[in-house]
Design goal:
rod-shaped, mainly alpha
Length: about 140
């Protein structure tokens, strides 16, 4: 009888150890699956973050180049402005208007037309399909 009780005791003990081992295995596998899923999400987030950093660096480099171009254009414009100021200081408009009013008016009109054309050319985006108004060509 003692042998039967010992046999059942050992059977229950081994069954309990086996059940605990199976439960531990299932929990470990669930934890591994969760960690694998989280690792994948972290990799995707890290790649997205790296892409964002790369884009920001490219944008910063492009902005720096555009800033240099704008600074250069500003310096050219300031040089032209200085030239115009010097020329205007040399011109006596009143004397020229009294001496040749028609010639002065014609020169002023030509200069204004050139200025308007330059402003229009600099502020109008290029359209390759646009028709040239002076020639009628496309």
């Amino acid at each position: 009888m003692v042998k039967i009780y010992m046999f059942f005791f050992i059977l229950v003990l081994l069954s309990s150890i086996g059940g605990a081992g199976y439960w531990y295995y299932q929990e470990t596998q669930a934890t591994i699956a969760l960690l694998r899923e989280n690792n994948t999400k972290l990799k995707i987030a890290a790649e997205t973050l790296q892409d964002t950093v790369n884009n920001m660096e490219a944008d910063a480099a492009r902005n720096e180049q555009l800033n240099k171009e704008l600074t250069s254009a500003l310096q050219k414009a300031e040089g032209k402005l200085d030239g115009l100021r010097k020329r205007f200081s040399q011109i006596d408009i009143v004397r020229e208007a009294q001496a040749d009013p028609d010639g002065l008016a014609e020169r002023i009109n030509r200069a204004v037309d050139r200025l308007i054309k330059e402003i229009k050319d600099e502020t109008t985006p290029f359209d390759p399909n646009a028709v040239d108004s002076s020639t009628g060509a496309q």
